[in-house]
Amino acid sequence: MAAPGPYQVAVGPSAVPSAPPSYEETVGFHTHFPTPPPPGPTTGLMAGAPGKAMSSPTYYTQPAPQPSASPVAVQTVYVQQPVSFYDRPVQMCCPSCGKMTVTQMTYHSGTLTWLSCGSLCLLGCVAGCCFIPFCIDALQDVDHHCPNCKALLGTYKRL
Ligand SMILES: [Zn+2]
């Protein structure tokens, strides 16, 4: 006697109230949604049938959020890049005048120059040959200057 009572009551109310309102709301939303979007794609409405307009607005909104994620990662790359100087001109942004320049190189005697000079002396080249390293750019240190403001941007040391 008690079993059939609660069993029927539980199934009855739960199924009846949920079904009618959800169906009406879904139908009402569906018919209202496709009508306002048209202002966006004007040509799409003219070419396609009025029935197709319902599917086209959903197509346009879906791909939009995907590409927006990529440009965010590119922004952070502009932090100070470590510029490494060698014995050739370097293209860089001058920190003192803020211009994009190619560095001007000046050679001056460095550790390697003096070591070569000393070793030449030990080998017996004392009659002026030991000064040859001071004329060879490949044995000298390189200073990189900005051609605009003449500021020293960096030095390349051989040793
Ligand atoms: Zn400069």
Automatic annotation (TrEMBL):
<dbReference type="Pfam" id="PF10601">
    <property type="entry name" value="zf-LITAF-like"/>
</dbReference>
<dbReference type="InterPro" id="IPR037519">
    <property type="entry name" value="LITAF_fam"/>
</dbReference>
<keyword id="KW-0472">Membrane</keyword>
<comment type="similarity">
    <text>Belongs to the CDIP1/LITAF family.</text>
</comment>
<feature type="domain" description="LITAF">
    <location>
        <begin position="74"/>
        <end position="158"/>
    </location>
</feature>
<protein>
    <submittedName>
        <fullName>Lipopolysaccharide-induced tumor necrosis factor-alpha factor isoform X1</fullName>
    </submittedName>
</protein>
<keyword id="KW-0479">Metal-binding</keyword>
<keyword id="KW-0862">Zinc</keyword>
<feature type="region of interest" description="Disordered">
    <location>
        <begin position="11"/>
        <end position="48"/>
    </location>
</feature>
<dbReference type="InterPro" id="IPR006629">
    <property type="entry name" value="LITAF"/>
</dbReference>
